[in-house]
Amino acid sequence: MIEKIKLIASEMKSMLSEIRRHLHKNPEISFFEFKTGRYIADILKKWGIEFTDGVAGTGVSAKIYGKDPESRTIALRADIDALPIMEGNDCDYKSQNDGVMHACGHDAHTASLLGTAYILHKLREEWSGTIQLIFQPGEEKLPGGASLVLSEGWLNNPKPAYMLGQHVEADLEVGKIGLRSGIFMASADEIYITVKGKGGHGARPNLCIDSILLASNLIVSLQQIVSRRADPIMPSVLTFGKINSNGGATNIIPIEVLIEGTFRSFDEKWRFEAHKMIKEMSEMLCSAMGGSCEVRIEVGYPFLKNNDILTAEVKKAAQLYLGNENVLELPPRMGAEDFAFYSQVMPTSFYRLGTKNPNGTGLHTPTFDIDENALEIGAGLMAWLAIKDLEK
Questions:
Q1: Residues 295, 282: contact at Cβ < 8 Å?
Q2: Which of 162, 301, 321, 351 is the catalytic position?
Q3: What predicted TM-score, i.e. pTM, was given to this entire model?
Q4: For residue 247, what pLDDT is reported?
Q5: Deepest in the core among 132, 166, 180, 213, taking most CB within 10 A?
Q6: CATH number, domain 2-185+303-387, options 3.40.50.1220, 3.10.28.10, 3.40.50.300, 3.40.630.10
Q7: Of 28, 33, 140, 372, which is the active-site residue?
Q8: CATH topology for 187-301?
Q9: How confident is the model at residue 360 (pLDDT cuts 50, 70, 90)?
């Protein structure tokens, strides 16, 4: 079966590249993937694969039936949205949508899962059960397309026995994958703080309550929550990525300063304790300096936990497909993924696909790119993982 899958995947190589480049050239941001969804649906229709569109707004759900389709169902997922980044690559498939780019590899995820769909459909007489494919929108933006897929009931009829997902890995060579049992990725919450002071002329700060100074002290002070209040054996991250004054200038002290950041953790109890500390410390510090603040914390994705038994099975199957030396153990990471929502309600295994491109850069950068040889491997491997225990 492995050789059959590899042969079909090899024959699809140029087609997978064509699909990926079309998607890369026409990226759409989270929850606005209207053309992307139609493109996926058109391909599935051409191949004769049953599908339903409108999943979480713009996504697509497809089902492929083997022998005895009611015996078991599993699910596979790819995310389809792009990022609000201006592409810096100079290539013939460069983004045609200014300010939008597939800088996280979701074009590769989608192309790969379409390849998996083609392989599974072609071999449908040689395995039993039903395989559901979710082409999911909105991974990059709260509330996360995965949460909507679940709340809308797309995985309820019937509920899959387990779910698999893969993600490109820019630092991992093509031909390799990385995985990890247990907690793999962190929770991620968004923090919005509005610091309020009293504006005025920069030459007369004694008549003002300096919101810039308040915000500066606040950002520095809040780091104590991680450095001095968190358990050192349970990593967490507090990062502020945006600060913007509302109306300031070189000689104007603004009334307000807006701060935006993220908090990440591997522990749910500590996660919400930290939320409370962030709010209390912000309010107390601003009050002590004569100002005030409003704190809003958007609870985001939970931590992603791979099922131990399922991930052990995935590891063994991947070793058969790729070779033992090409299946690596990865450390936990503070990045977040809305695939975590699935991991909270069913057995899941989420792994990283090596796509290292010597001319590309890291994820979420303007010059990110992949080695397209990874598409053949990604499509074939996921097909094998899907049917390894469904074969007749």
A1: yes
A2: 301
A3: 0.94
A4: 84
A5: 166
A6: 3.40.630.10
A7: 372
A8: Alpha-Beta Plaits (3.30.70)
A9: confident
